[in-house]
Each structure stands twice: as structure tokens, then as C-alpha cells.
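call fold(seq) -> C-alpha cells
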Amino acid sequence: MTIYKACDIRGVYGEDLTEEIALRIGKAVGTKLITRYGLPVTSVVGGDVRPSTKTLKKALIEGLVATGCQVTDIGTVPTPAFYFARNHLRAKGGVMVTASHNPPEFNGFKLVLGEMPIAPEDIEEIKNIVESEKFNVEGEKIKREDVREVEVIESYLNFIKEVGRTFSCEKVLKVVIDAGNGCMSRIAPRVFRDFGHEVKELYCREDGTFPNRHPNPVLEESLRGLSKKVIEEEADLGIGFDGDGDRVVFMDETGKVVEGDQAIVIFVRDILSRKLSAGNHPSKVVYDIKCSSIVPETIEKWGGIPLPQRSGHAFLKRGLLKERAVFGGEISGHFFFGELSGDDSLYAALYLTKIITAGGKSLRELASEVPAYFTTPDIRVPFEGKGKEVLLKIEEGLSSYQVDTLDGVRVQFPRGWGLGRVSVTEPLLTFRFEAESKEGLKEVMDLFLSPVPEIKEKVQCLYQP
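ret:
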């Protein structure tokens, strides 16, 4: 598969992604920024803890400088600190060298080319510049020492403490933090202690080979260690971060994961109830189209306006900014806040401690208050063919029902819904289904997949209600 995804660039280091490619991508990004803004223009560059990040970042910076772009190197940082730094330093562009939650052999680039998040057409333009080698060459006049190195972590932490000043500890919680040896390893435990909580650390030593668990905390096997630690410590809350620290998963005091839909609902109820109490006009909330129906239902119940978005960080963030929404949630663990104009896993985790301590309810009690439908996980079907043709068959075969093509194909049935998407990062088709009962779930799955019997057979091998 191509390294150029819908909203970022990602591939296996040494195979799909090399220093030479990083150099060319740096030149392409610099060319794009200069074309858009003229000179002088600055790009912030940060990176995660992966072994390949240092060399890829060096090559990328050389490419940026070669075009005439000025560079501010902020070192090793979590992705939320990278986004903060770009705003704080008032840079037009930015590149974060990371493969996020992918395994250690992967690496990649998250790009910022302006105030709005990256769009698929931006990635396509970067790809075209790389392949055509139509680079700007103004950088021949700039010396390498003009690249600045700036420490931003302290400024970022001060920012989090300022915007989260109302999260001050009303009750001390015992919190287990599982950083997965990623970018939040040094930062998250310190911040929670600064807010007055008792912290127990798990995998909080930076190691980009991720020796203890997969960097994707959403995977069930990734959080077994956290669950065990929460139970052993009799903790109030478990927090698991992904490799680059922009996604977060929560675990209650029984060692059970709070599903992404449940976490979104918990945030929505708190945020919208405060807006209602303040007499504000109806507030907009953006959410991942893969979310359970309980998410839009809760938004409406608390006086909000639910706005579904394509799955993916950039799409959710674009929706948040465009709609001036107060909150946004993605079931993969991204939580967006209007006051931040984006997402931040550390801020989200601190906000949750406020909800727990202020309301006097445990996280298990809060999660149990969220009505539950029968919902499948993401069912990932390996598929090397033309996935869009499969989705088109479903769309045409079920045209008598309510069909939504915002992101893949989503079909609403009387007793539930089904969603099919083509993965933008792997050769996969992904499916998700929901119904009001177990029997209804089987009916929804059978009906949704009826136009594609060969895919239906594969799905049935992977998941049975």
C-alpha cells in the first residue's frame, strides 16, 4: 500500500520509508508552505520515541531547509505538545515524525500546513510534488545553523495547568498511568502528581521498541497489564496512552475498560449540562460516524446538536473548528475540546478526574449510567481487491433503506445500523454493526452483508453475535 494515507504519511521504516524519502517529503512540505505563505515561513518539527525517528527527522529538516523554510526543532514530544508548540510559536507549518499507534517498525509524518487540519487533497499534492521533484530551491541561501532548537515541554505543561486550573483535586484519586513506553512516559505521571493525585506508574520509561505492549491502547491485549495493576493497587482509575500520546483509553476501578462510546457520553453529559445551566444556546458536538447511537441520542437529550463526521483525527478536528463545536469524540480515544481548538489526551484524562471527584461517583458508576446497545467491535476483514466496489454493491443493494455515504457506507435499518469502510492505512475492509438486541444484531449483520455473500462469509468467520 502507498505511504500516502488520507490524513498523514506512514510506512515501514527501511522499506516504504527511508531517509531519502523523508528528505523529499521535507522539500515537498517546504515548497507547499512557501507557495502558500511566501518567505519567510517557519515549520515546527517534533518527533516520537521510535528508534527510526531521529534519522528520519534529520533528513526531513534538511529537506525543509533546502527549500528556504525556517525550522524550529522541538525535540522529542507527545503529539499534543507538538500541536501546542506550533500555535505557541506562531509557526505556519509543522511536521510530527511519528507512526502514532502503529507497531515499532513503522514511522511516518503528521503534517500541519495552516490553521485547518490536513486534508486528503493536501496529502495528494505533497505526493505529487515528491514524485515530480518540483521543489523550491531558495534554501541554498540559508545556512544549516539557522535551524533553532527550542524546549517546549515546560510551556506545554504550564498551558495544560492553566486551561485545566478548574480540575484541581477535590479528592485525591489513586491513578495508574500506563504510557506504553511512549511519549507520555515522563510527562503524564508528573502532571497528575502536580494536580494532587496519587500515581502508580506502568511502562513509563521511554522505549520506542514498545517492549511491554502494543502502542495501540484500544487493542484488548494492550491493556491486560493496566487492568491487573488497577486491581492490585485498588486504584480509582486507569489511564492508557498510545505511542505518540494523542489517544487515551480509560479503565474503571474494577479493571474494566470504559468503551470509547461510553467515555464520549460521560464527557458530553458534563459539558452540555454546564452549557444548559449557563443558559447558552444549543451547543454543537462532533462525533465519529462509527459511534453508537447512544452518542447522538445523549447529545440531543442534553440540548446539543449532534454532527457526525468521517472517522479520523483530521476530519474530527476540521469539524470541531468549522462548526465551532464545544466537544468532539472519536471511539479510538481522541477527545476534542472547543477551548483547546483540538484534542489533547492529557487534558481529557485530567478532565475525567474532575468529573469523578466533583460528582462523587466512581468511573464504573458513571459508565453504568450510559445506556447500552448491542454493538460489535470493528470487524477487520483482510481484502486485497477494490474495496470501494464492495461498498458500492452494498449501497446499491440496500438503496430502499436510509443510506449515508459520508464515510464508507452506513445503512440505517428499523432495528439498528451497519457501517462498512475501506481502511486508509491497511488492505482491509472494516465493519461495525449495532442493534437494540442480540437477535436484532444478527439480523442487521445478515441484511447489511446480503449484497456481498463472499464478504459475509468472511465476517461470520471473524465474529458471531
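The longest strand covers residues 428-435.
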